[in-house]
Amino acid sequence: METLEIIDKKRITSYNETTQVIGLFGFGTVGSGLYHVLQNSPTTKARIKKVCIKNAFKERSLNEKNFTTNPDDILDDPEINLVVELIDNAEDSYRIVKAALLQGKSVVSGNKTMLSHHLNELIEIQKNTGTALLYDASVCGSIPIIRNLEEYYDNDLLLSIRGILNGSSNFILSRVFQHGENYNIALKKAQDLGFAESDPSFDVMGHDALFKLIILTVHSFGTYVEPKNAFNYGIHNLSAHDIRYAKEKGLKIKLVATLTKLGNDKITLFVMPTFVSSDDYIYNVEDEYNGVVIEGAFYEKQFMFGKGAGGHPTGSAVLSDITARFHDYRYEYKKRKYFKCPEYSTDVVVEVFIRYHDIVDLTVFGIEEIIEKYNGRDHRWVIAKVKLSSLLKVKDLIPKLNLFLAFTGKLEYIGK
Fold first, then answer.
1. CATH code for the domain in which residue 232 is found
2. Same domain assignment for residues 399 and 255
3. Cα-Cα-Cα-Cα dihedral of 221, 129, 101, 336, to 10°?
4. How many Cβ atoms are within 10 Å of 102's Cβ, its own excluded?
5. 214 in the Ramachandran plot: left (φ > 0), alpha (ψ -120 to 50) or beta?
6. Which 3 state secondary structure label does DSSP give 369?
7. pLDDT tens across 299-312, in order?
8. Distance between CA atoms of 189 and 374, rounded to whole angstroms?
């Protein structure tokens, strides 16, 4: 092993130039892209020794000796010191990541579903084993949002995070508002370009954005919220009526994840289509791009922008995490370590737009107050105040109704 010497006037420091020996799980778009990047990047001190795949009979460009269908060929190999997990199945991902950490191997993962459901446990395993789990690739593609929250916003001054965390749904909304396409045509185009899956519900119903928001909440405030306890609603019921209303008001509709501090010791979070005005940073975030607005007590608002969908943006984030492990980087979870974590609360009243057709559907919301209403020949809508706790109770029912729900941006904390 070659030793490099760094000499300055005050001291002599040495470090060992080591190589990350990687065991890779998954060889889809991101996994295969990462392999070829590492093969053609001589300055990157990492090499992939073995790739674990599910389908042994699928034709691939690499020699078959590089592949295995047995996870233990990676997990039990003492030479492999870094596991990179890039598979879709959340349950398999959890088993692989947990096993690797328990065996003393650090991990890079991009599976936001798995992380959002198991992050509390995985943080404790890291602490007990001295390993590291990095996952910047799981949130916002090419935007290094997690590492910024860990390093730059590592104080107790953060007030809120809100933004577009799902590039697929944003691409669809851009086609609808910028190009006048209807929802189904825009969705098909997103699928053809690889921004949306054949089953797009994970993206368009707000699940993907919520899982990412759960992860960001841990790094923003230290608080972990189980996904089942947070409200999300998507854009799948968007209609021409809703688009026309927004345009008449000079607004756009974006699928926005909202995380905000309530007083000194509470936070709330949710994902909903949101009316966005032209003076909002995220108003001009279009196509498959993501945009995140971070607000603090004294640094006011700061904006981060970048591609959030596609293999290359995610692959670049994976590569960044691999490089970070070469320098022994790990998340310190400083908000948990140095501050009292605020409690999650749904004691919030949100102002929402509800477009509906059957008056019975409106009764599920437990409306506190109607601000404005419209009755037309073929549709109706109200602007109303609704408790977030009430929305959460009917979270699974609302997407099945013939209506559309959007947040106006107005929120009021009603707790103690």
1. 3.30.360.10
2. yes
3. 0
4. 13
5. alpha
6. strand
7. 889 999 988 766 67
8. 33
**Is 258 found in the same domain as 215?**
yes
Cα–Cα nearest to 225, from 266, 269, 162 = 269
- What residues form DSSP beta bridges with 374? 381
Q: Where among 112, 134, 156 does a domain terminate?
A: 134
The answer on 397 and 282 residing in a single domain is yes
What is the span of the domain harbouring residue 63? 3-134
* 105, 112, 212, 252: the active-site residue: 212
Please give the pLDDT value at position 16.
39
Q: Do 50 and 185 have their domain in common?
A: no
**327 in a structural domain:** no
For residue 295, report the phi and psi dihedrals to the nearest 5 degrees: -120, 135
Q: Can you spell out the DSSP letters for 323-365?
A: HHHHTT-----HHHHHSPPPEE---EEEEEEEEES-HHHHGGG
Residue 340 annotated among the catalytic residues of the structure: no
Distance CA 117, CA 98 (A): 13
Do 286 and 390 reside in the same domain of the chain? yes
Token reading at 173: 């909304």
CATH of the domain at 9: 3.40.50.720
Domain presence at residue 326 = no
pLDDT for 192 equals 86
How many domains does the chain fold into? 2
pTM for the full predicted model: 0.92
Q: What does the block give as tokens for 169? A: 């749904």
What are the residue ranges in the chain where pLDDT is below 70?
A: 1-18, 41-44, 59-63, 309-311
Backbone angles phi, psi at 381, to 5 degrees: -150, 155
Q: Tokens standing for 245?
A: 């209303």
CA dihedral 379, 381, 386, 391 (to 10 degrees): 30
**Final residue before a domain boundary, out of 99, 134, 169:** 134
Pairing of strands 20-25, 46-52: parallel
Beta strands in 198-265 (DSSP E): 231-232, 252-262
Cβ(214)–Cβ(119) below 8 Å: yes
325: in domain: no
- How many CA atoms are closer than 13 Å to the CA of 276, on its beta-carbon side? 27
Q: Which two tokens stand for residue 69?
A: 């269908």
